[in-house]
Amino acid sequence: MKKTDTKKGAVHAGFSYFLWGLLPIYWKFLDKVNAQEILTNRIFWSFVFMIVVLVITKKWSLFVTTLKGFAENKKQMYFLTIASLLISVNWFVYIWAVNSGHMIEASLGYYINPLISIVLGMIVLKEKLTVAQLVSFLLATIGVVIITVSHGVFPWIAISLALSFGLYGLAKKVIHVESSVGLTLETMVLAPIAAIYMIYLFLHGTNSLFISGWRTDLLLMGAGAVTAIPLLYFAKGAQKIPLSLLGFLQYISPTLTLILGVFVYQEHFSKIQLLSFMFIWAALVIYSLSKTKLFTKRKVKISNEKTAAL
């Protein structure tokens, strides 16, 4: 792979994580709208936006072909439905957390996410844990226990976000489709339910869309674009860079969210929370370094030295 391709890939992937990290600002503008209505608008307008993208990028025929294949392959359709439900749960919890003053815990969820993926890989895919992965998981567990014991409440927001996104990634492993087509299919599964709920709100006069002013209308309809654009940039970038680099870049998003929570929206960040985050950050450093070429080469060198000694 050319260096220019890798550089472009890093820029695209980094930009996607940058946008995700700033996304709480967007949801804060909609803090007067309940999380359920924001979610249904996000799903419905994401589907509409992606249909437009497919037409513009001339991938409509690929979408139709893929859809026919899914209709014939029940296993693929099953996992597509699961993926759609999981990402919807993730979106809902995140929107609710941001607009309810739990941005710090939301960022914690995305710090924990890679480590949850390790456990899911071990349990579901029967992958073996390396020493570095085991140490990372134990350190992260200590961090979660510290928050739980100190607050007396299990950090369900963080765990829900990490678990739902980790399981979403697992479901996506079974679904092999082009990224924009995949996102269109995922939103298509739940778009009818979202539309029915939106109609229900209209009939009962409890909707915010087309009632609360043009600013709210644009923000709710724009939720489709702000959802799809980072995902499209991520897909472009992820194809061109090593997984180890992608692993480092993914921490841009929760770091920005944490900064926003503490310094912009003035959420309380206690010493206990800092201690917990330090354990989790240490776990992520070890996990990320274990994915680099330097760490891999060192393991090979040590293995060769042991073999020579024998």
For the record, the count of structural domains works out to 1
Alpha-beta content class:
mainly alpha
Q: Tally of extended strands?
A: 0
Average residue-wise pLDDT: 87
* Overall 3D shape: globular
N→C terminal distance:
38 Å
* Radius of gyration from the alpha-carbon trace, in angstroms: 21 Å
Helix content: over 70%
Query: Can you count the helices?
Result: 13
Strand percentage lies at: under 5%
How does the major sheet shape up?
A: none
Order of helices and strands: HHHHHHHHHHHHH
The parts where pLDDT drops under 50 for at least 5 residues are 302-310
Summarize the structure.
The chain has about 300 residues and is mainly α.
Description:
By secondary structure, this protein is mainly alpha-helical. It has one domain (about 5-110, about 155-270). It has 13 helices and no strands. Helix 2 (about 35-55) crosses helix 9, helix 5 (about 105-125) packs parallel to helix 12 (about 270-290) and helix 6 (about 130-150) runs antiparallel to helix 12 (about 270-290). Residues about 300-310 have low confidence and may be disordered.
